[in-house]
Amino acid sequence: MNIKRAKNEIKNALRAYLARDAFGAYRIPPIRQRPILLMGPPGIGKTQIMEQIAEETGVGLVSYTLTHHTRQSALGLPFIETVQLGGAERTVTAYTMSEIIASVYREMERTGTKEGILFLDEINCISETLTPMMLQFLQCKTFGNQRLPDGWMVVAAGNPPEYNKSVREFDVVTLDRVKRIDVEEDFAVWKEYAYRRGIHGAILSYLEIRRDHFYRVEATADGLQFVTARGWEDLSELMQVYETLDLPVDRQVVGQYLQLPRVAADFANYLQLYEKYKRVYRVEEILDGAWEKVRASELAGAAFDEKLGVLGLLLARLADSAREAYRLDRLTDALHQDLVHIREGEKMLGTLLDEKQAALTRRRDAGSTDKDALFTAAREAERLAAFQQALALEKVPKGQAFERLKALFQEDVQARADAADRTDRQLANVFAFLDAAIPNSQELVLFATELTANYFTSWFIQNFGCEAYFAHNKQLLFDDTRQRLLREIGSAEPD
Fold this sequence. Notes:
Helix content is 61%, strand content 12%.
């Protein structure tokens, strides 16, 4: 199955494992809560979905890469203990708490969350001395005589043997005690994730043309050479920062992430074309509606790959604008809820500020990768601090404080409205340009389709509307219906 389906399966299993009956007991006894064994190629997002699941469900997450552990760190260190056995005092060997189990308890204390996920990566690449201990843990959820706390689900991940020479096969006894999920790469699913994460537009438009370069592992005389989803995402992060620092991304830089030379070279060449399209077609002018007719003529006569590259540029910029509107919308909603709490007397401004700053710290300490949620949390705390400072500096009387807060909040409402208006204008301007350059074309159909597929542009259109988009979608639906009727008429004609 693909990684999206695997994520849903794990979330459903977590919900089932944590479900309780009327007496507060787990409906599935812990002994029957099978660990999940997630098997799939490296770099397709197994670790990322665990972070997403924990963040979305509000449970704790403790992650370990088992190849970094020894028998002692997993099991604990031995010590001599004196006990009463058979009416006599005897010395026996006991063990300190496992580092892994201790980390679970630390996470519970740090977050106050009693339930969570213990994620054990590279489970089938562990050392020979650790193998018996890990098999015991998968079967009994214990290291030595120490048990994993109830309410914690075990998810283990591994790679098939063709990707790792160190892989050890599990026996039937172990496999019969786990819930196995086999995962494979899927570009369509990853693209949906990539839109949500804001992956660089050059990567998305390139992979739209070269889908076979999304994920490849090849055995060569020099060893395994590969390109993975993780490589593309990490390269995207670097490219976005390099752009802000005005640093070049050349073949050598690309090759550090895409470790299949011919793919790295091909993408580096495409990146040069992508930058050329940005200069030649003056994307910012198109967004502002100030494009020259010659630009439309140039695009009309361009090759298909060039058209897709330009569409990728436009989609990336529109997605950036829609994402800004999305973030400001979430921020405005959060601040509005804060003002409701203050108006109803449920919380004071200072108390709210302390809570939001503490929540932001917890998110950062937990290593949250949701940039949009982090933006909202950080800006919310920042705005509440600004509200508090304004009230103090202006020495606003207590009876007038809420009215002043409402006035300050209007600045955020206006910022959201401005972002929405800007995105709407840009959408209209881009459609006007494409109508002049490539009217009624398959590229225009693709553009409208990708606007729907992109999380942020789709969200924007759904919440704020877009006349140009709806007009084109209506035409697309009409054309689809017309083509279907023509096919039906053709099939009904006598031979």
